[in-house]
Specification:
It is a single chain. This protein has 315 residues and is an alpha/beta fold. The protein has a domain of 217 residues: Rossmann fold (3-Layer(aba) Sandwich). It is built from eleven helices and eleven strands. Strands 3-2-1-4-5-6-10 form a seven-stranded parallel sheet, with helices on both faces. The chain has a two-stranded parallel sheet with strand order 7-9. Strands 8-11 form a two-stranded parallel sheet. Strand 5, helix 6 and strand 6 form a beta-alpha-beta unit. Helix 2 packs across helix 8, helix 7 crosses helix 9 and helix 9 packs across helix 11. The longest helix is centred in the middle third of the chain and has 22 residues. Bound molecules: NADP nicotinamide-adenine-dinucleotide phosphate (NAP). NADP nicotinamide-adenine-dinucleotide phosphate binds next to helix 2, helix 5 and strand 5. NADP nicotinamide-adenine-dinucleotide phosphate (NAP) binds next to helix 2, helix 5 and strand 5.
Amino acid sequence: MKTIAIGVFIFAEIIYQHGMKKILITGTNGMLGKVLVKQLLEKGFYVIGTSRGECKIVCNSEKFKYYEVDITDYFQLHDVLFDERPEVVIHAAAMTQADECELNKDKCWNVNQHGTVHALVGAKMYSSFLIYVSTDFVFDGEKGMYKEEDECRPVNWYGHCKLAGESVIKDAEIPWSIVRTCLVYGEKTSGGRDNIITWADGKLSKHEKIKVVDDQVRTPTYIGDLAKGIISIIEKKATGIYHLSGKDVLTPYQMAKAVAKYKSYDESLIERVTADTFTQPAKRPAKTGFVIDKAINELGYDPISFAEGIKKVLG
Ligand SMILES: NC(=O)c1ccc[n+]([C@@H]2O[C@H](COP(=O)([O-])OP(=O)(O)OC[C@H]3O[C@@H](n4cnc5c(N)ncnc54)[C@H](OP(=O)(O)O)[C@@H]3O)[C@@H](O)[C@H]2O)c1
């Protein structure tokens, strides 16, 4: 009787596990990775987190496992894929600071291009779907409000390497999707870095003056929306390129002003400047921002407004 009960339990467990997809994510210590893990677990997926160094996610779920993987070392990734056999790989790990990329070109190429080759080779062997997270910095910023099919022409090394990563993915022999996103913001996590909202709030709350550019245009993206959009891609097995960003078209100056208004800070602390005020190693594309109609129509993507985003982030 006991043997039969154990047999039934194992059978039920196999059925259960096979009903649920297993997703491997690279870069789970990063801003996007953390939120993706949370949302995927809430939806019942099994999640394999990987990133450089120790896990920065506090999670007791038995559906979550973490492995230290440096994406520049193919064998580290291979071993995890071999053991776990995830159906889907989301490649979010990257060197993301444009100035750091400009100053460390070899390192940036190694992480962002070679790392993507490694993700592809591994996914081709053990998975059936690959999602690559890319950026608005693949565009030159001359036109703004880019569609998926617009011509890419990066103006800095970060954009150049992310675009090289896109070319790698487009050659994949398994179904793939490229998700481009733009100026991501969200709740600050412990040890996490600032974003436009938390940075402006931090400075203005201490009555510090800030200089903010008013000649760059973006469609800022709430991190929760980006993660939701990526999960829709998994659920619909949607292939091809998708632009996932917010819907409001704003300059960083307008974003900082919106933060100040929401918190009733002294708006005169914010000085409106142009990009040439700053000498930064990496040139920024002036006008980016996305047309997100494809994601709305095909994925049911429905991002919140920037005003709602401020409420979420600053409570
Ligand atoms: N944030 C944005 O505004 C934005 C905009 C457009 C596109 N994106 C894209 O979105 C994706 C996610 O970005 P994010 O905002 O989450 O960036 P993030 O917070 O900087 O996270 C990136 C993660 O990748 C990890 N990483 C870096 N090098 C690695 C390596 N060699 N091996 C393994 N992991 C490595 C980092 O590890 P450490 O924690 O050790 O540094 C970090 O945890 C990236 O592909 C980025 O290009 C982001």
